[in-house]
Amino acid sequence: MEKRITLPLTREAAREIRSGDQLLLSGVIYTARDAAHKRLVELVEKGEKLPFDIENATIYYVGPTPAKPGSVIGSAGPTTSYRMDAYSPTLIREGETGMIGKGKRSPEVIEAMKKYGAVYFAAIGGAGALLSSCIKSAEIVAYEDLGAEAVRKLEVTDLPVVAVIDSFGNNLYESGRQEYLQTCS
Prior knowledge:
The protein is about 30% helix and about 25% strand. It contains seven helices and seven strands. It has helices spanning about 10-15, 35-45, 90-95, 105-115, 130, 170-175, 175-185; strands spanning about 1-5, 20-30, 60, 100, 120, 135-140, 150-165. A five-stranded mixed barrel has the order 2-3-4-5-7. Helix 2 packs across helix 3. The model has no long low-confidence stretch (mean pLDDT about 95).
């Protein structure tokens, strides 16, 4: 059974999500990949303001393709998450509560999730065209020079994800690869 979550995701709401939960996310999410994450963490380290409010934010690791005429966005499939692992603990500490990507996360990211209350969601790799149909609006909010990797603010409706790692460190990749594959199918 899928649960519906309205974003932003508070730390309290994040702590109610369990590894293995199938969810439909609606609300505002932001896009960022490794180049943008690097710049965001540099701003944090300098004590400067981020280009969007990180408190209770969910970041989708995606570099969407250009939109076709009449479309809001192009294909928007998830990027491999470990590329953000060097930066994620800092952003989680600063207020990020949700991350959407694919693949495993480092022990440091998982520890930050447990300490501060964040969740890692998996989106289905290879289903970018389907996922893009859940995106109702998209606007660049930072780093336009990064092209597809610019930070975007997306309004999503019923974006399907699976909670892979919850805020208690329960990890679907470790607890049962077979169960994970059945959950996502």
